[in-house]
């Protein structure tokens, strides 16, 4: 195979001012953090609200949350991003639409990708929250009501703190998936990590090296997220409860 290996490719000049290729990769990683982080915040807020709604006595609340989950979880993520980027802006009120299209292309792409990915991930978190709450003994809720708590107080002080500990392990995987799925944002114009990697590989033709660097960057970042979530899980773990490490002492 006639291939010119060059592991120092990222330290070569791009030809644009004093920028090196690793600067482009770092910029792409920065946009990945923006899209993934924004989407994760949206997913947590919407997911927890809908997850609680799925366990309320109200059939209306259950049906609204279930409908959301069925739509957003079963429609392909890429289709949802395209809808948020190409379709939704045209349906906005005139004033909002004018403001939207006055923004830069990358800004609107980042906002659309963050909203689309956030709402997609929220559907998955909704089910995890529902499962976590339903896994608790029914006596927990009854005890809250017996103490005179309202429904909101029972969820706030009794159910959600315990359910949160239950769903932390699957949420670790969901967190890494959220940032990995952020790579799809490149298809609506976000200059994130994958987009920059493709550009660098096309400019340099050192495909193997460039994609290897990007893969290592993803691995290191996702492992750091997992370690952080694992540390949080251990910190919040109640000994003898939901730990799987023996009974209480």
UniProtKB/TrEMBL annotation:
GO BP, sorted A to Z: amino acid transport
InterPro entries: AA_ABC_transptr_permease_3TM, ArtM/GltK/GlnP/TcyL/YhdX-like, MetI-like, MetI-like_sf
Keywords, sorted A to Z: Amino-acid transport, Cell membrane, Membrane, Transmembrane, Transmembrane helix, Transport
Source taxon at top rank: Bacteria
Annotated GO MF terms: transmembrane transporter activity
Cell compartments where the protein resides: Cell inner membrane; Cell membrane
Transmembrane regions: 29-53, 65-87, 99-120, 210-232
Domain ABC transmembrane type-1: 29-229
UniProt-listed SUPFAM superfamilies: MetI-like
Topology in the lipid bilayer: Multi-pass membrane protein
Gene Ontology cellular-component terms listed: ATP-binding cassette (ABC) transporter complex
Primary location recorded for the protein, binned into one broad class: membrane
Family, similarity comment: Belongs to the binding-protein-dependent transport system permease family. HisMQ subfamily.
Descriptive protein name: Amino acid ABC transporter permease
Species this chain originates from: Moraxella caviae
UniProt gene name: yecS
């Amino acid at each position: 195979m006639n291939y010119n290996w060059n592991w120092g490719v990222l330290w070569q000049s791009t030809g644009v001012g004093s920028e090196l290729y690793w600067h482009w990769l770092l910029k792409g990683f920065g946009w990945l953090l923006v899209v993934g982080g924004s989407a994760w915040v949206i997913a947590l807020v919407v997911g927890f609200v809908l997850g609680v709604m799925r366990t309320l006595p109200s059939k209306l609340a259950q049906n609204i949350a279930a409908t959301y989950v069925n739509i957003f979880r079963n429609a392909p993520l890429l289709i949802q991003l395209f809808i948020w980027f190409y379709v939704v802006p045209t349906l906005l009120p005139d004033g909002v639409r004018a403001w939207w299209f006055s923004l830069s292309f990358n800004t609107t792409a980042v906002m659309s990708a963050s909203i689309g990915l956030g709402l997609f991930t929220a559907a998955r978190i909704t089910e995890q929250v529902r499962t976590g709450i339903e896994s608790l003994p029914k006596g927990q809720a009854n005890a809250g009501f017996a103490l005179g708590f309202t429904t909101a107080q029972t969820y706030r002080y009794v159910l959600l703190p315990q359910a949160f500990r239950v769903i932390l392990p699957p949420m670790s995987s969901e967190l890494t998936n959220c940032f990995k799925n952020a790579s799809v944002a490149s298809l609506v114009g976000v200059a994130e990590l994958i987009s920059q990697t493709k550009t660098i590989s096309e400019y340099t033709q050192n495909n193997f090296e460039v994609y290897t660097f990007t893969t290592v960057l993803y691995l290191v970042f996702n492992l750091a997220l997992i370690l952080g979530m694992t540390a949080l899980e251990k910190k919040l773990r109640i000994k003898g409860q939901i730990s799987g490490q023996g009974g209480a002492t």
